[in-house]
Amino acid sequence: MNSKKSDFVKFEQVDKSYDGKELVVKGLDLDIAEGEFLTLLGPSGSGKTTTLMMLAGFETPTNGEIYFDGRPINNIPPHKRGIGMVFQNYALFPHLSVYENLAFPLKVRKVDKSEIEERINKTLKMVSLTGFENRMPAQLSGGQQQRVAVARALVFDPKLVLMDEPLGALDKNLRESMQYELKHIHESLGVTVVYVTHDQGEALTMSNRIAVFNDGKVQQLSGPNELYETPVNSFVASFIGENNTFTGTVKEIASGSAKIETDSGETIVANPIAVSSSGEKSRISLRPERVSIDPNEQLENKFTSEIREIIYHGDHTRVRVNLLGNDDFILKVPNASSDLKLNVGDKLDLGWSSHDCRALDY
Amino acid sequence: MTAEIRTSDGELLSVKLKKVERRRRTTAFLLAAPLLFFIVFAYVIPIFQMLGRSIDNAEMNSFLTETHEVMQTWDGSEMPGEDVTSTFYYELKTAVENKYHGKIATRLNYEKGGFTSLIKKTSRKLKNFDENANFLDQFIDVHKKWGDIEYWLALKRGTDAYHFRKYLTTFDYEQKFDGSIERIPEKLRINVTLWLRTIFVAVGVTFCCFILAYPISHLLSVLPTRYSNLLMICVLLPFWTSLLVRTSSWMVLLQKQGVLNDTLVSLGFVADESRLELMYNMTGTFIAMTQILLPFMVLPLYSVMKTISPSLMRAATSMGATPFHAFRKIYFPLTYAGISAGSILVFVLAIGYYITPALVGGAKGILISNRIAYHMQQSLDWSLATAMATVLLIAVLVVYWLYNKIVGIDNMRLG
After folding, report:
1. Rg (Cα) of chain B, in Å, rounded?
2. Which of A58, A284, B98, B229 could connect to A53 by a Cys-Cys bridge, CB 3.0–4.6 Å?
């Protein structure tokens, strides 16, 4: 029985500091399952790339231990770890052809010639670059270079592949199609992937699980769906997707519902996630798409807003309104309902369920 | 068949484009013009004039034009006839009257030793000549050397309008009066030794510079800017110091009673009576030239290394290459352009280096450029000096051509 390990990669109490004054990564505990596509998501300086570099072996943890396939690897140099890596700027060897680039990890491993050729052909086919063997990297487009970089990280069959913002330099369309391609490659090979990005869309599209980093710590580790729908704190809520917030004080709290008085004096019924007692300050998070316009059904929260700005976005229209003292409250109106006549200055009735409105930490 | 493309106002596109471009080209030319004129008049023309001297003998030819012409019919197998000797007599007489016989003497002395005294003595006695008697006999009466046919052969050869014999001398060969080319006697040979030494020193200094510059350039390229700037200043500091000052400092350091020897003696590594000979030999030339030329290797190497992304080495090691293997297969090949640019710079500068070998080289450490200077300033054989300079120039151009063939001149970068 070939059971998948749930702690294929394990970070145990890992700290990292570069200057001895500040911790870039703080007490990181993270298990990565075999065959998983795990994304480290966070703003720049959040410690996600440092975490990846420690796993690759280019940085040494200041404290703690990293295990890879059951072995502690702190003292194993990068070239003995057998981890494939795709770099942000591709890091293709500019003086070697595509074929030679791909042959490099195999030659290092003293794979014999016929097998090298066979494996390269197979890998190039996988990234749809058959026929590009003799091109030099400079003769390839950004997307093609990216594919070569991925192929090169996979050609020696590593059990773990690390990707450091590999799609960062591509334009939007190419980035989206590459996301699907990477996802399919991951699914067909079953290789474990640890992926670093600051692009939440990318993370949500590709990952099995996402670890949201901020300030050197994992804020939330869960699947894309859960992360978007049920953020556990206000950082995650604001970092993932679009988000309307109110700040207020808890007045009354019961299981599944809390009455919160906003700074403007109104009361919102919210879902208590990170608040437990009355008197606590809280930041309430509400996704724009969970807000109904002109609600006729029974909703706990119903308020009137005033339209400030209307921005046409093609498939939907974004409407900025003033609601309960929040001047940046955003609504997304699908263009199918264009019978709705919206004008700046109009009053608009809005409503939402208490369940969708999450009371988080302040 | 494609239709001619015209612009909106009906003009041919190609014509219009040229018109528009002309203005831009003119501006570009005007910007470059001052430097261009300077280079042409102060550099290119003088150099070619100078180089011309290596084969030019027109002045001598003009002094003794008729003698030279008459001598063309003389085959040189026996003593010249009266037509030659009489013409020579009259032209020499004119020379003495106009006081340029000294130049003739000097010039002919390069062809054959002894000519100076011969011409001078003859010039003094010219007034005693009987213009109706046999001239050859009278010449021989004045000086018995005129009876030696080689002097007449030298006279014939020495009045050619141009000649290439200085190039033979450059490589320690000479042309005998019978036309055969032979090496000069062993104890007189010096140029070939100097050429070989020059090439050896140039190659050696280039290699030493490479060995020293490679690690430091790498360090420069990976250090954070504030440290690398400081280090760069240390590398470039010598650049801002006069060459003479630097060379003199090496003399202070390297001489027998110098700082280095004193230190070694006081530390007990070297006995006082056997202080190291670090100067006035090849060692001195090597050490000083390597230090002085080092920045020319560091700068191109640094500029190339700066462009090599550190992620390349990381990528290589992540794929399983040991750091050494990654260096050899990835990093080192990527620095070829810098190595070759630095090497050609240092080599070309080293092959023509003058001041440093002159000051710290001594007799055993001088190079071909010092020999050229010697012929320019002391022996005053400018033809030989320029012949040597021409050979040096051609050697450099060949190196340059090879570099362009192999690496491509576009790859040369200097920071």
Report:
1. 31
2. A58
